[in-house]
Amino acid sequence: MKILAVSDLVLDRLYKPEIRELFRDVSLVLSCGDLPYDYLEFLVSSLNVPLLYIPGNHDPRYDEGNPSAQAEGCEILDRRVMRVKGLTIAGIGGSIRYQPDRPNQYTQAEMYLRLSALLPSLVWHRLHSGGVLDIVMAHSPPRGIHDDDDMAHTGFSAYVDFIRFFKPRFFIHGHTMVYKGNLEPPVTRVGDTTVINVYPYLIMEVEPHVG
Questions:
Q1: Domain span holding position 189
Q2: Residue 200's domain is classified under what CATH number?
Q3: Angstrom distance (rounded) from CA 107 to CA 125
Q4: pTM (2 decimals)?
Q5: Is residue 211 part of a domain?
Q6: In the 3-class helix/strand/coil scheme, how is 34-60 assigned residue by residue?
Q7: I want to staple 93 with a disulfide (CB 3.0 to 4.6 A). Which of 17, 69, 78, 204 is the partner?
Q8: Taking the C-alpha atoms of 72, 78, 82 and 85 in order, what is their torsion angle to the nearest 10 degrees?
């Protein structure tokens, strides 16, 4: 199954009617944050497939009662786990806190607490879906993996521990690629998990786990 993963940067190549032909075989769209909601709404209406998204540090605070703080026709996955197209997918939004009183920014300790909200759903899905977590989508990278030295682009230690414990097949994120000055590739293997920086977009081939 082909998945279109996007993050951080609006691309003219994707923001036009020809996207229907370019990505006609895409079955799912995953947005890792910091993209305008009208862009996400264009993608979901053009491709007519499910679109899951999480907030980045430049996105508004999610408000269930405020339509302007939601992407219409899309499903927000922050601190949630869903079964979609045969895949179990978890989402966790936000970046490290580097500015006071800004939405979607968290300390290292706060991110551990945010991840704990996933535990009941992960246990349920483990019991009902064979125990495989296919994809974790985050805005920021794990600490020490695709992150950077400046405060705003430091990754989360909680993600490293999460990967080691739950062993998802894929951990995808955005947030940092444009800022990196080194030649570190955006794909890193961590045990059983493939960590991928999808900035600004990537086509992934992921099949439901069998066995």
A1: 2-205
A2: 3.60.21.10
A3: 28
A4: 0.93
A5: no
A6: CCCHHHHHHHHHHHCCCEEECCCCCCC
A7: 78
A8: 50
